[in-house]
Amino acid sequence: SWNVFEDRIIYQLVVFLQPPPGYSFRLELYGGTERRCNIRVVMECTCSRTGDTFCLLHPSDNNQSSPLLSTLCTGSYLDVEEVACWVQNLVQSAWERLPQWHDWQLQVLSSSHSCRLLLTCPGQVQLCAVLVFAVQQGSP
User: What separation, in Å, do the N-terminal and C-terminal C-alpha atoms of the chain show?
Assistant: First the structure.
């Protein structure tokens, strides 16, 4: 969605996160009247899918684990603050490699549960992009 607020155009984008191969996301609801959920990261067996795919649950000599658990998770749960920080750093790094945007200024705004970007053009028009992270119920 998008909206105009004073001299700023605000875009809100939903970014659906997908688990890496060998993992799935499971939503665990809690909170009673306030519906909240944790996103549990679950390892899945991939042994029967193809002969050349390693399985995270059943170790083999060439087994490698995904960096997802150590980078973006706290315990067995996806850490939304870590995801937001990772995406903010990724966007900042990518922005520095885009020479065609040298006239625009990018500012990553502090946010713990989304990625908020403020773009200012030479005419002082501002675009604010808010990336909201989501997972789909029953994601594979």
Answer: 27
How does DSSP assign 65-131, residue by residue? --THHHHHEETTEE-HHHHHHHHHHHHHHHHTT-GGGTTSEEEEEP-SSEEEEEEE-TT--EEEEEE
Question: 132 pairs with which residues across the strands?
Answer: 14, 114
Question: Distance of CA 52 to CAs 48, 59, 60, 108, Å?
Answer: 10, 13, 11, 41
The SS3 assignment for 89 reads helix
Give pLDDT tens digits along the chain (140 positions): 888 887 788 999 999 988 887 788 888 887 766 667 888 888 877 776 555 555 655 555 444 556 666 788 888 898 989 999 989 888 888 888 887 677 788 898 888 888 999 988 877 788 899 999 888 765 44
How many angstroms separate the CA atoms of 43 and 73, rounded?
A: 13
Reported pTM: 0.73
